[in-house]
Amino acid sequence: MSFPKGFFWGGAFAANQYEGYYDADGKGLAIIEKVTDGSRKSPRIYTREDVPGFYYPNRDGIHGYTHYKEDIKLFGQMGFKMLRVSIHWTRIYPNGDDKKPNQKGIDFYRSFFEECHKYGIEPLVTLSHYENPVTIMDKYKGWDNREVIDLFVRYAKTCFKEFGDLVKYWLTFNEINVLAMGVGDIMAGCFPPEKDQEPLFLSFDVTKGAQRRYQALHHQFVASALAVKAAHSLKKGLMVGAMIGGGMSYPYTCNPDDVLENLHKMEAGSWFCPDVMVRGEYPYYAKRYFEKLGVKLKKQDGDDETLKAGKHDFFAFSYYASGVTSTDQKVLENTGNLLFGVPNPYIKASDWGWGIDATGLRILLNESYARYQVPLMVVENGLGAEDKLEDGKIHDPYRIAYHKAHIEAMSEAIEDGVDLIAYTTWGCIDIVSASTGEMTKRYGFIYVDKDDKGNGTYKRYKKDSFAWYKQVIKSNGKKLD
Ligand code: BGP
Prior knowledge:
By secondary structure, this protein is α/β, with parallel strands linked by helices. The protein has a single domain (8-474), classed as Glycosidases (TIM Barrel, Alpha-Beta Barrel). It has 14 helices and 14 strands. The protein has helices spanning 15-18, 64-78, 89-92, 103-118, 134-138, 147-163, 210-234, 256-279, 286-293, 303-309, 329-333, 358-372, 397-416, 464-474, and strands at 8-12, 45-47, 82-86, 122-128, 169-173, 197-199, 239-245, 248-251, 314-318, 322-325, 376-380, 420-426, 446-448, 460-462. It has an 8-stranded parallel beta barrel, surrounded by 6 helices. It has a two-stranded antiparallel ribbon with strand order 2-6. A two-stranded parallel ribbon has the order 8-10. α13 links the parallel β11 (376-380) and β12. α6 (147-163) packs parallel to α7, α7 (210-234) packs across α10 (303-309) and α12 packs parallel to α13 (397-416). The longest helix has 25 residues, at 210-234. The chain is globular and about 60 Å long. The two termini are 13 Å apart. 52% of the residues are buried. Bound molecules: 6-O-phosphono-beta-D-galactopyranose (BGP). 6-O-phosphono-beta-D-galactopyranose (BGP) binds next to loops. 6-O-phosphono-beta-D-galactopyranose is lined by residues 14, 17, 174-175, 245, 318, 380, 384, 426, 433-436, 441.
């Protein structure tokens, strides 16, 4: 196995899925904290007013706000070199537009990052991980409004100033491409919900509301580039990455129509955002793609120069599964609008229907490095499964097998010549699921005794995979059995 010396082994979670204490110490309300729990069968619902009897899982998270020292100690026991987390925008600016930042929020995150360094863990911090303030939605109408660029950049500058001595690696938006893929407007918190109650996930149809999505995405591109420039000028050595939901897609057959369709799918879903953020300009194919969607971007003078001056330092992505593209209506008819397209007959799926494809990760790493020639990070990768706590033990061989296969694929990619510098597994501790709000869909090496409705002791238990991952890290990826 060929992981370089100093490779950042670690784990990841997001503030909104981990911290809880959603209204403590001056924190404001985030959109996701008005979203109920859901399941594989029923979507999560945004509710403008709380509905008695509904449960809002992100208000509890897993009580990370009070458990973080215990949790970081456990990550230290596994030998983590990096921990990817996010900052709740509403702990720093409760309404997003407050005159001054909330000092108690700053104090909390300084303590969190200092705790990481006690164990030699490098924080990797996402500024916006589906945690938009309610006020930004209600008062400013979300990312439709160009004024939100300045509010985001002010928040970013505050974080760089307050934490730049403890945090070197940053990401601006989590999975910024969800906007382009027509997924989860509310989850990604980009637009104010239209109705008093609205399902979290909309269609996966990018043609729906394309003009609004790509205009909002343009505002986020400008905000992200301005944040990169601010980081570089505020403190030497800060590195800011572009981050997307990493989609790897294959043509269903060698029919040239399927191959062409797949090329366009990869451009629209995976390459479009990093092309803008890492290369610093809209890609050549954007013109025809926008014409097809009827999108006419409204840019301001200086936007193109901003994108060029704010090129991101590295490219990071989440990777869970691969998808399949077909142009054959018969094939499409009997698959429905699965998140990852047509089921692939050559790979197995998880209990939540996500295809398990480690080779897809090796392919995506090679294609990403060929395209951008900047350091890469895999900042989410994991298996959501129904783990069982029995006599204080959790046996999760399936999780060990999943990560083993993906670590072998990353090792092959490094052998191929890819400059991969970090691997932070998703949900290194059980947290609230983003898409379903469940705890049942567990990802962690550490089990948390909390159920889907918030009941439990919130006690932490090491799963079998805890000791396994510890030896992987200790051997720098050599000992995987
Ligand atoms: C990604 C999000 C994460 C995480 C992950 C797993 O899209 O960046 O926040 O939740 O998906 O998804 P889920 O929690 O729905 O299983």
